[in-house]
Amino acid sequence: MSAHLILQLFISALFSAALTDFFFIYFSSVVLSTGVFCGVSVLCASSRATWAFARDRALPFHHTLSRIATCFSSPVPLNAILLTTVVQLLLGLIYLGSSTAFNAFVGVAVVCLGASNAMPVVISLCNGRKDIKGARFSLGKWGFVLNSVAVIWVLFATVLFSMPAVVPVTKTSMSASYSLLFPCVRFDPERYSDYASVVFVGFGVISGVWYVISTFYESFLG
Known about the structure:
This protein is mainly alpha-helical and 222 residues long. The protein folds into two domains: 1-97, no CATH class; 98-222, no CATH class. It contains seven helices and no strands. It has helices at 3-14, 17-55, 62-65, 78-97, 99-126, 143-161, 195-215.
């Protein structure tokens, strides 16, 4: 929804130009403040995760990204923060070029998070949950059922977030083929298409290639 439509909604509801200006500025300030605080929290969390992966040699250039700057009042992972900031700026530039591509990156974050959480659960299930026997929170006799439900839910969420937000999709907003993620499913690109599946597969391929390359040089310490 554009700013002009929101302003028109205020005018139609309040019947006063002065009240419209006040509430529009007020709510705009609230939204802007919320965005700033969310941006700070996202930067802190993502830079911390970047530094932790670099510390465990799970990222390219981990020697640089894992350095801690001691020139501040408290130690700060400056290189990880700078990298995270650059990535966030690049995502903002993507939105200026294509909102569809930006929404795909935002949507695929949920898919990637779910997949990363589901992979160790799947490995544990395939192993008969032997690795967690004797653990403090092993879930007992319900462990197999609860783990299976969690994996099924992640699969459902992956399909859900890979679907387009608007149906039907026009040629001007056409995205990449959904069949890249599910090649066995018949797909009509004129009606259903979304970038999220392509971004998800792309991140998976990049991660897999880097994992194979890293095994020839240094082992992952995490």
